[in-house]
Amino acid sequence: MAKYDVSIIAAGRDVSNARLQRVMASCLAANLTVELFSSGNKSDVPEGVVFHTVSKGSRALRVSNSFILPWRARGHVLFTPDPEGAIAIWLSNILRRRPWVVDVREDYRLLIEDRSWATGPQKIVAIVIAKMALFASAQADTTFVVDDWVRPTLARNRIVVRNAPDVRFLPDLAPAESNPRALYVGDVRASRGLWSMLRTIELAPDWTLDIAGTISAEDLPRVLEWKETSSASQRVKFHGTLKPQDSWKFASGAWVGLSLLESTPAFQRAWPTKIGEYLACGIPVITTDLPRPREVIVATKAGATVDYETNELTAGQTAGILNSWAENPQEYAKVRSRAEKQVSTWRSAASYDLIAASIGELAGRKR
After folding, report:
1. Do domains 4-162+351-366 and 167-346 have the same CATH topology?
2. How far is Cα 196 from Cα 308, in angstroms, rounded to an integer?
3. pLDDT tens digits along 139-176
4. Which of 76, 80, 134, 323 has its CA 20 to 30 A from that of 50?
């Protein structure tokens, strides 16, 4: 018998995941009762959410958990942000029909090209799972996608909810600190600009860097080596996995937000969420010259773009900008002023309550 309005099945997500936190906050604001199946710390779970811990582990464990959890869930509506979860719920509904919602936050097929492990047989399996997940996602009662171009492009009820800044998790506007400090919030891996950022700080001796996010398993050994050997290691702080409001505390006083993504197939089309969040905090942005970030920076002049061919090239250009700002505070003040003028625009762009409204409608329909 159903006990909650919605069961969130997120075996592949940590409870601190930003979009997951936004969905839960919206559901709670709509007075929906929520249970969550996810990994992570109980302390990161919003008050009012019933939390069931899911063990982290191999990809095989993630898949098996995804197929078990729909049968344990006691919600009127099932919700998942995971491709495996979409497949599992779709199949479970053959025997036990319940309304369900999927949140497709990435183009699953393109994302595979962004993963260093995706080679040989592993890549073939990943492609098959991605295609199955896209088909299953289109069968949900409501399919949320993060952008217009993200697949599935056809579904029973497809709604676009972009990863816009959620003011519930952002600090108030604050002036820049006296000492130059850069910020990165997000997934920490090579393709997200990890090595370009670290090399940048080596080349910009007056700067420090805060990194808030989980370091990928593939990059962790090299990061540990870098911390032991780099002359800049004392000027970089890795804060690890944090819930959004704790990650964005570091935006207060920061001079610049970094988004030095590599030019992967997915990033050529994507909008990096962090850029909007930096601007919503009044922080100038330095981004690699990808199509959509370039449009915003050219239009607002609230930062700068740098080229990406190699980490060394990107780092050299980024460090050149940072050093110039540190040496010429008046130059930086002009860029900062333009970023601060963007705050109201970016703080009014979120529409996550559409997700809660859809879940509430389906929950009411079931009762």
Report:
1. yes
2. 9
3. 999 999 999 999 999 999 999 999 899 999 999 999 99
4. 134
User: What is the CATH architecture of 167-346?
Assistant: 3-Layer(aba) Sandwich (3.40)
Residue 20: Cβ within 10 Å count: 24
Cβ contact 88:70 at 8 Å: yes
Instruction: Give the CATH superfamily of 4-162+351-366.
Output: Glycogen Phosphorylase B; (3.40.50.2000)
- Note the pLDDT of residue 362: 97
Q: Which helix (H) or strand (E) holds 92?
A: helix 83-92
At position 335, the amino acid (one-letter code) is V
Q: What amino acid is encoded at 163 in this protein?
A: N
69 contacts 37 by C-beta, under 8 angstroms: yes
Predicted model pTM: 0.91
